[in-house]
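Intended use. Records like the one below are meant for learning the mapping from a protein sequence to its folded structure. Do not use them to infer anything beyond what is encoded.
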Amino acid sequence: MEPPHATTDPPTSRLAPSPTGDLHLGNVRTFLINWSLARNLDWRLVLRHEDLDVRRASVDKIDAIEDSLRWLGLDWDGPSIRQSDDLAPYHAAMKVLAGEGRVFRSQLSRRDVREAIEAPHAGGEIRFPPELRPEPGPEWAFEHPSDGHRYAMPAGEEIVRDQLLGEHVYRPSDEIGDPVVWTREGCPAYQLAVVVDDHEHRVSDVIRGEDLLSSAARQQRLGRALEFDLSPRWWHLPLVSDGEGRRLAKRDGDRGLQWYADRGVTPARIIGLIGYRSGLRDDRTPMTLQEFMRTIDVESLRSLVDRERAAPCRILDEDHDWLVS
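Structure written out for the chain above:
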């Protein structure tokens, strides 16, 4: 069952970068669309840095991301937020889950799980099956925050109704099993943190990449387990890839905003290229932020999704050449 959607006043969305590197052009497109829709519909817009990856996130990267967003012309309401500034809400959430017997301590690594279920080595997620849960006892508590913990995912279907992609049915227990909700580094994992944050910040509308669509099902499950009575409305956007069809990613070293800015590229050229490759204009020409914003509404986003089902958005070498020309 899908929980009711949030109806906060005012409606609220969030920009939620991970400060683990520069913003690539796929990130930029999502943020431009998110910002434009929020400003057109008079939503409140929060900037939240998802900086709980202690090995990769840093203050310098947070500052650099904020500088890049301002360089593009984007703003947000109120001071920016860093997840790492206050872990108390996540601890409280884990206590709730533990009190309901929904989390258990597990120090098993991905490799341990793969070997236990005799799964071949491959990329992607490894399903943690119920058979690997510990027996009832002290492991089903949250008394050791320096240890990893998993959420005992209930069986059954979870329906996600997306504003752009329609209705999707997932079975999280069959697909990923019991996800990590607390890491061995002593921090909340992504799936728990984003649910708690969106509730804390009264987020009513989440705009993000399509790769996170299946996560919406997991997050709805966690939200109900935490007795959050409202779920955000979901808006998942198609991903941006390169000329070979590989999705843009920080970990692969794709060029970011700072790289272009250092070479004299203007925000209007970045925005113009994204507008062109998103089908919002007919050719590569500079485009102001206000011009881009005027192209974004619910119907234009649905049209974008329909177009990119047939012809995904790709940033080609010739696009990079145009930017720096």
